[in-house]
User: Fold glucan endo-1,3-beta-D-glucosidase from Gossypium hirsutum.
Amino acid sequence: MELMRIFSYASIILSISVYLLPIMVNSIGINYGQIADNLPSPENVVPLVKSIGVTKVKLYDADPRVLGAFANSGVEFMIGLGNGDLEKMRDPNNAQDWVKQNVQAHLPDTKITCIFVGNEVLTFNDTNLSDNLVPAMQSVHTALVNLGLDKQVTVTTAHSLGILQTSFPPSAGAFREDLVDILSQTLSFHQKTGSPFLINAYPFFAYKGNPKQVSLDFVLFQPNQGVIDPTTNLHYDNMLYAQIDSVYSALASLGYEKLPVHISETGWPTKGDEDEAGATPDNAKKYNGNLIKLMSQNAGTPLRPDSDLNIYVFALFNENMKPGPTSERNYGLFKPDGTPAYALGVTNNNTASGSIGNEVTMPFSPTSSSTGYLSISSATGRRKFVGHALMMASLLLIKTLV
Assistant:
């Protein structure tokens, strides 16, 4: 039975690699969640991940089975330290023990390059969590320094877009006033240690929250008129880039314009509840297919055209045990048996990708400027962490400005 399963996965992986590998030729990250009881073993996940060209994996914990399975694979790992562990990690001794067991023990065979301490902590509005965040990050970094690992492993934390007070136009991006003090502490930490600023961004919430006003083409990277930032005169033809640039602007307003921004989560569900408009396989195919194609162009956002787009797609698998709305269990690129959840058909260099799916058209840059503007407000976003897998999404409201 086990032999048949191995041959089955080998066949699936071969067919996937033939059609998808040419698309994902550049560095791409994937979120590997495990809130499910039907996922393949980590050993079977390794060839699946490599077959689609993924070079970076974000893991929500430090599962030794996964880290061991990926030894000598060349895949880089960002591992997580849960919100529930923040208070414990304030103690430098606890932090050092954790780093020894979960990082040092796997190096250098497994390429662990980053630890994210807590997930969307600041938008839980829990002062205990917030108060523990920076001290925990500092303790983990100190542990890395003591063990001589700080040059190869950075420490950061992931935020939702809910930390923004305003986000449109992107040039007016600003953080919530009540979070400026704690954010200033984290930003100072990032600057001193050379770690990136992580944001989880989901244009899906904009469409779900207001499908009659939000342009589906704008959130799916499809051809559309786009919008103009009246301050910078920069043109935006997709919401994700507008969101990213609003974060850049918010950072600049606090004096951290050079801090690198990585998108630690973004994706689109294939299925949802009745009130989750747009959660379909076709929309998921367009969102992720077009996103991957944009990444392959090695171009940045309108505000930061020369900055690398370090994006981690959510997620590798559908996870059948996640709480919350139906969409939470259906973000995967793959089903638990290793077959694609939908066809990522993308045209690359004018060559069709094959029978795995239909062509996905890239967004275009219009020759004339748009006279309409879209207002993008902040979203609390999704909270995905073992023990904290909750969805706390407020609406990303878009409306035409006069």
User: Anything to note?
Assistant: The chain has a mean pLDDT of 83.
